[in-house]
Amino acid sequence: MVHRKRLYILDTNVLMHDPTSLFRFEEHDIFLPMIVLEELDNAKKGLTEVSRNVRQVSRFIGELMANGADLSDGLELRMPDGLNLEIGSGRLYFQTELTKPHNSLLAEQSLADNQILSTAAQLQEREQDKEIVLVSKDINLRIKAAIIGIPAEDYFNDRALDDLSLLYNGARVEGPEFWGQHEPVESWTNKHSVFYRLPRQKDELWYPRQFLALEGDNGLEAMVTSLEENHAELRVVTDFRQQGHSVWGIRARNREQNFALNLLMDPEIDFVTLMGTAGTGKTLLTLAAALTQTLDDKIYSEIIMTRATVSVGEDIGFLPGTEEEKMTPWMGALTDNLEFLTQPAENDEWAREATNDLIKNRIKVRSMNYMRGSTFLNRFVIIDEAQNLTPKQMKTLLTRAGPGTKMVCLGNVEQIDTPYLTETTSGLTFAVDRFKTWQHSGHITLRTGERSRLAHYASENL
Fold first, then answer.
1. Long-range contacts of 188-195 (CB under 8 A, 24+ apart)
2. For labeling, which of 207, 225, 263, 282 is most exposed (least CB within 10 Å)?
3. What's the pLDDT tens digit per position in 398-445?
4. Residue 9 is inside which H or E element, if any?
5. pTM score over 0.85
6. 57-79: burial string, b at 16+ Cβ within 10 Å, e else
7. pLDDT digits (tens, 9 = 90+) for 92-151
8. Domain 253-461 sits in which CATH superfamily?
């Protein structure tokens, strides 16, 4: 069977989402309808991430059109300097003739989606030797395309992985047979910590800072501290469930919370990602670790708190006051946890005021809108609701880290509010997947809700 060459028609939202999508279709050709160019032109102004992406698309097309290229023959999709992508051999075509309605269902031509569909139908009739495929992030447009017989696909190249179930969860649980499968095992003690060195089996996947939990009578909780080609070194983790190891008065309530506190309290780990549903303790554990290491241990000079508002990059509005006061309505979860953590043991109004004044001097609430160009030195940075960040926005934030800074991303990929962002394309998913092999980062997925029996029952049954 001979496979026909494909002609991909790109919807505007694909280019807005990923400007490099022009170069990600290998040997196949790309077609841009005039209405897509119009929509790009209308979205080019502003300081939002979408506007920046649109301007980048225009620059790419401008480079391709240099030297008086003949548009009727299409533009060769040459790779721009600095783009590290596989080189394709396709061409870029533009709409050069008017579109006529091809279906009575699409009679309303003032709708941009209908113009794209009519263009696709016209190409389907004219380009018999090519397979016409519409690519869009808009599920409704793909449904309409299927109704009138036009093949349509989502844009897949922006996915961190094919299925969320494949995402690294930060821990592996083994049975009592684990030791027998990894003989011989060496063990030693160094600075009150117990270490193990064991051989790696063939095709066995280990990651730096990955946790190991052994179930059974001789249960063990350990973290991978170093990896060699044929061996793995483990260190028994600190048990933060014990009263003597509480963090700012907080103790871990389950195994995953204990793993999370080991990551948050380790000065050798610069980047931590915590994923989990509401009530698993992500924010509370992170704030407790931040306060301890900033106020008690003096490792960090300040705590920076921010979150991904749904309109990341947009103006945060006409709320009165300073940047911090404008961000306050968005920071409800963080401030609620702070109030809980800073409440004195005795109901002493003076002690509460003194504690609040001390913490206000060390905690800053920042808007992501103004972080581009900033550098954080010796800061403990907490990014809440990170599932609403795109991969590019995540990169913008993480590259703000200067020497001595620790960044912690919190989120639940089941609660994404950003348009066209999915569980597999979220910046948080990308961060977990891309950092899992780095020695100075750690991740754990929290599974057990610890708020109350009411909250737990509601999450399970509503």
1. 193/235, 193/236, 194/235, 194/236, 195/225, 195/233, 195/234, 195/235, 195/236
2. 225
3. 998 999 999 999 999 888 888 778 888 899 999 999 999 999 999 999
4. strand 6-10
5. no
6. bbebbeebeeeeeeeeebbebee
7. 999 888 877 666 666 676 688 888 998 998 898 888 888 999 999 999 999 999 998 999
8. P-loop containing nucleotide triphosphate hydrolases (3.40.50.300)
